[in-house]
Amino acid sequence: MLDLSFVRRANRTVIDRRLFAWPFVLTRSFYLDPERPSCLSVIVQTGSGAVHGEDSLAQRLVLNPGTAVCLTNQGATAVHRAEPAGLATETIDLRVAGGASLEYLIEPRILFPDAALCQSVELDCANDGAALIVDAFTMHDPRGEARVFRELTSTFCLRRSGSEPLVIDRTRLYRPTADIFRGYQAFGSAFLVLSAWHDLANLQALVTKALGEIPGLYAAASVLPESTGLGVRLAAQDLAGIRTAFARVSAIYRQALLSVAEQQTAVQRR
């Protein structure tokens, strides 16, 4: 279990609730973004370094008004084989209040043969909040025999200010064969949840152009239902392509936040 809450104090984001248990480990946090000095960068580590068999993992992040958080982990996480009836689960609950922004930049999962993982991300983001959520996986067979994982189920659910779900995105792969991946080895998605201040058509064009410049990457960006933001799908030959794509999407997201902050400041001065 990992349970963190963030508040804004003295013009900076700080942690005001820090609860964690095995396998999660949390050490010092940092302020690394010179353009957003109030943004707190948090690196979550795991004592096990992997997801095993029937592990059951849970995370909750609560961003109170005006906070800014960038959360990642120490590296790609291996998901090892599960018993025939076993399934590892991961539940992630993200709550972003008004004026807050979250970058949830978790490193990809590496799915070993016979791995089985069910993960769900629930995001409740205020109408004037913002969030960037990424997720990715690749496959690895230590014997080099092109064996694949047993099961992967991934669900993303978006609410705004406690509303009914506006977006439910679900992927399920059960006993896939290698041929369905069409030669691609790494896959990812990104959800940019933004406020009404943002020009989604322009951002979609920027994301499409930036991703189109990455060699060997298959990518698409579309506007989410109710104009809540953008959804991005990725397929690449390896994790390097996915990581490059996420870096470019993150840069566009951050610039969008800065541009809107400047617009809001200009309006307030009038």
UniProtKB/TrEMBL annotation:
Alphabetically sorted, this entry's keywords are: Chaperone, Cytoplasm, Nickel insertion
Q: What is a single cellular component term in the Gene Ontology annotation?
A: cytoplasm
Q: What is its main location?
A: cytoplasm
Which GO terms label this protein's molecular function in UniProt?
A: nickel cation binding
Subcellular locations according to the entry? Cytoplasm
Show the Pfam families listed in the entry: UreD
In the record, the note on similarity to other proteins reads: Belongs to the UreD family.
Protein role: Required for maturation of urease via the functional incorporation of the urease nickel metallocenter.
Task: Spell out the subunit comment.
Answer: UreD, UreF and UreG form a complex that acts as a GTP-hydrolysis-dependent molecular chaperone, activating the urease apoprotein by helping to assemble the nickel containing metallocenter of UreC. The UreE protein probably delivers the nickel.
Annotated protein name in UniProt: Urease accessory protein UreD
Q: What is the lineage of its organism?
A: Bacteria, Pseudomonadati, Pseudomonadota, Alphaproteobacteria, Hyphomicrobiales
Name the gene for this chain: ureD
